[in-house]
Amino acid sequence: MELEFNAEELAFRDEIRAFIADNFKPETRRAQKLTPSFQSDPDVVVPWQKALHARGWVAPGWPKDAGGPGWNAAQRFIFEAECARVGTPAMSPMGVRMVGPLLIRYGSQEQKDFYLPRILSGEDLWCQGYSEPGSGSDLASLRTKAERKGDHYVVNGTKIWTTHAHFANRMFALVRTSDGARQQDGISFLLIDMKTPGITIRPIRTMGGDHEVNQVFFDDVHVPAANLVGEEGQGWTYGKYLLEFERGGGVVSPKLRQALRNICEVAESEVTDHAIAHPEIAMKISEISLDLDALEFAELRVLSALQSGQNPGAVSSSLKLRASEIHQAITRIGVEVIGQSALIEEPMRPLYALNHESLLPEAFLTLVPRHLNGRANTIFGGSSEIQREIIAKQVLGV
Ligand SMILES: Cc1cc2nc3c(=O)[nH]c(=O)nc-3n(C[C@H](O)[C@H](O)[C@H](O)COP(=O)(O)OP(=O)(O)OC[C@H]3O[C@@H](n4cnc5c(N)ncnc54)[C@H](O)[C@@H]3O)c2cc1C
Q1: Would you say the CB of residue 136 lies under 6 angstroms from ligand 1?
Q2: Which of 98, 292, 320, 376 counts the highest number of beta carbons within 10 A?
Q3: Taking Cα atoms as reference points, which of 189, 312, 195 lies closest to residue 250?
Q4: Which residue, 169, 165, 215, is CA-closest to 193?
């Protein structure tokens, strides 16, 4: 593998840097810095997405004819690394990284023509309706029912842990359309307009203090049959295809590396009494750096192996497992670095809208919420135990 960028790639990097300098506003930079969650609020991310959209850079992984920029693996990596270096907002993965590739592969022409441009422009914000109370890892047992009545499905049931359902105007959902002998065969994939009568959203506040996830209830919700993706009863196949993109369709290592750099900066400062000089902290940071090198090589290898728009396959589980564990190691060291200050809580949310002087210096504000929020990384998108099971069966062939 060639590890140095060539002249053409360096010119591409400069082009990205110039774009960022022109379009990444200081107020957005601060808001993103003070966002502890893995997803940014729409008021932080949408202006940035609109600027990217104007350049055709919203969906680096999509094929060119679907609206992707046609970048190769090195260009995708450079783009992500440059964005991570300055901390640009995190675009919702539900549209660009998840339902977008699914529609490109399995959607009807009408669905592609309608939804894909709206994902790119940021006009549509999506949420993911997979998990239900009692159906998380055992997703095939899901019970939210969609009964066909004429040219509609009537949906009843509930979804839980639905990230950003309170912002989204659309949900992609796995629903039960029949009770066959094999649970997986009765599942279908529906696109639901969140403004449809009969949908209720109940917020769930998580231990980091943020409102990110929700429970969503469906009471006789009428969804046009045209919103079915592919064939009825094939939703399990589509749902699993989408999960490969959720787990391994992006480039995460540059963001993690920047998160570690940010913590090193705090650890080097006087306000932490130069915590980095503590041998245990320095050793942990070195270990995380090595893990990051390995993740970066793995991501580059997968990116190079993929043609634009292809699915990552079971290796996505290895990437998800490692990235989530490294993320947690980074946020944990962040808490260790600030010592007893970690006991002081700033309850106001969002942190970027803080209108009083906090007891904590600004550089400390997100460290504990980010650590608590990050506990979910080894749960969502399929828990670490489930990823290990997939790796054992599908990668190692055990
Ligand atoms: C912050 C957050 C955001 C989320 N966002 C979304 C979202 O937007 N949309 C959505 O649909 N879902 C979302 N989820 C739900 C997430 O996908 C589920 O929480 C996850 O799949 C685990 O399911 P569960 O919570 O029901 O736990 P369970 O499946 O009950 O698992 C409990 C524990 O048992 C272990 N376990 C279960 N089965 C096995 C097994 N076969 N072998 C070994 N160990 C096992 C698990 O690893 C876990 O440790 C989110 C979750 C969180 C925490």
Answers
A1: yes
A2: 320
A3: 312
A4: 169
Give a yes or no: residue 378 inside a domain: yes
pLDDT digits (tens, 9 = 90+) for 335-357: 999 999 999 989 889 999 988 88
The total number of structural domains that make up the chain: 3
Which residue among 98, 207, 213, 383 has the greatest number of ligand 1 atoms within 8 angstroms of its CB, and so is best to mutate? Answer: 383
User: What does the pLDDT look like over 52-75, one tens digit per residue?
Assistant: 999 999 999 899 999 999 998 889
State whether 137 and 181 are in the same domain. yes
CA atoms within a 13 Å half-sphere pointing along the CA-CB vector of 379? 8
248 touches ligand 1 (CB under 6 Å): no
Residues 288, 224 within the same domain: no
Per the structure, the complete domain to which residue 47 belongs is given by 7-91
Ligand 1, atom nearest to 130 Cα = 11
Is residue 216 within 8 A of residue 288, CB to CB? The reply is no
Pocket flag, ligand 1, residue 161 (CB < 6 Å): yes
Q: Are residues 216 and 155 part of one domain? A: yes
The ligand 1 atom at the shortest distance from the C-alpha of residue 213 is 3
Distance CA 121, CA 133 (A): 33
Does 313 lie in the same domain as 272?
Answer: yes
- The whole-angstrom separation of Cα 50 and Cα 73 is 23
* Domain co-membership, 168 together with 260: no
